[in-house]
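Sharing a chain and its predicted structure for anyone who wants a worked example. Both blocks are below, sequence first, tokens second.
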Amino acid sequence: MDVYSTLLIERHAAGYAVVTLNRPEALNALNSTLLGELTAFLDVAELDDDIRCLILTGAGSKAFAAGADIKEMSAQSYAAMFKSNFFAASHDRLARFRKPLIAAVSGYALGGGCELAMLCDFVIASEAAKFGQPEINLGVAPGIGGSQRLTRLVGKSKAMDMILTGRMMGAAEAERSGLVSRLVAVDRLLEEAREAAAKIASLSPLAVAMNKEMVNVALETSLHEGVRFERRLFHSLFAFDDQKEGMAAFIDKRQAVFKGR
């Protein structure tokens, strides 16, 4: 049984889990307890074959996560932040999670909340979602990869605009800019995310993991090296029973049953 003080975990028989950031009284602000529990659950989920995909969302209607917990950080010194490598453990764990992560965002996704959404593999947002990196208003800067991922997703001009002015980006603009994959009505958000997660969970977990790895490598390598990496993983998928099952099912015009081997 998954028991956490700042997370709600819902495991679904279709092969996915919903992780809800559960600090609605603080607009789901990311404190060390929440990030530590999220990191711990990712360790559990990565080793659990019954979980093939995760949905990450926020409790309440106001926020996915309205940022990092400012009260926890305000008195910190440079020496303390540097020594603890603040945010590094949670960022690095999310970045190396091998299973798909879907962010289901409604309300505010600001600062660390926006960065958390961008650490997911794609973002499904409701029409009420608002994204931003307002750290400049506090005299600081993004600290969980915001300056890097936002720039890669929306381009230099919009990233500079948002980071230097602290302005928020609405859901429609976020979709147009490439930050959001899908835009849905508020009351359809979790249903849409569940449908996507169930679809992913029904596929070969080996193929899913390799496809995720291919896309991530595309952001960090040349086209020539990226295509070569893709080709090698494509070739390697023919070593698995799931490839034989998938192609046989297609030829036989039936539903494939993937077993992850």
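Comments welcome. The first strand starts at residue 7 and ends at 12.
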